[in-house]
Design a protein that fits this description.
2 copies of one chain form a homodimer.
Chain A: H1 14-17, E1 28-34, E2 40-46, H2 48-57, E3 61-64, E4 69-72, E5 81-88, E6 95-101, E7 117-118
Parallel strand pairs in A: 1-6
Antiparallel strand pairs in A: 1-2, 3-4, 5-6
Chain lengths: ~130, ~130
């Protein structure tokens, strides 16, 4: 077994959180990137509550639109994502997190990244 | 003046384009990453028409939600984005493009990336 990656919570600054704009469903899109390889792993959504949890816990906590519930990434799969840095964009309506990805990868298909299919090559399997 | 980057269109495969899922507004989120530095530059939206234009022209063509029009990135600012690779995710509802960024950067503030503010540091200017 490899060691659990270090957990590095990020200071919660209310003036920053107050800037973030959510869509009509109360969600903000989040791009998640591997802090070492710089590969973009996935895009998902957070609400105000799970953004706060993500910063406080130092682990990526999304909001699942399909299940309509808090999605603490990796609690089921073991493929947790440990936060290294978080950013918000110029319009305050998109987030970017650099993470240490635990386990096999970010994608439920078993691929490291959810973006494993390339335009111009035709569709194919994950592996 | 630096030379214009090479333009590399991507083959349009109808079976790939047919996979892509658009939201209720007919849009799909697009993550744009610098192909060399691997820095995530921005997140924006495309519709089916501008995705097709992006592949055909080898330049990033978004759909502006605020202006409700086709947004051929850089036509006004000069900061064009030349496509190197494009990917679609496991759910077929998010795109990732690796680009060569021309000019000063991707952000209208003058920053290289729109994600220039970091959680835990308080808000500050772009530069």
């Amino acid at each position: 077994m490899s060691q659990t990656p270090a957990v590095t919570p990020i200071a919660i600054l209310e003036q920053e959180l107050a800037l973030i704009k959510y869509n009509a469903d109360g969600l903000v899109p989040v791009v998640t990137q591997d802090a070492k390889s710089m590969q973009v792993l996935m895009m998902a959504w957070m609400n105000a509550e799970t953004l706060r949890m993500t910063l406080a816990e130092g682990r990526m906590v999304y909001y699942s639109r399909s299940r309509q519930e808090i999605w603490r990434k990796g609690d089921t799969s073991g493929d947790r994502q440990f936060v290294r840095e978080g950013f918000y964009d110029c319009d305050n309506d998109t987030l970017l997190f650099l993470v240490e990805q635990e386990g096999n990868g970010a994608c439920h298909t078993g691929a490291v990244s959810c973006f494993y299919r390339k335009f111009g090559e035709g569709s194919h399997d994950a592996h």
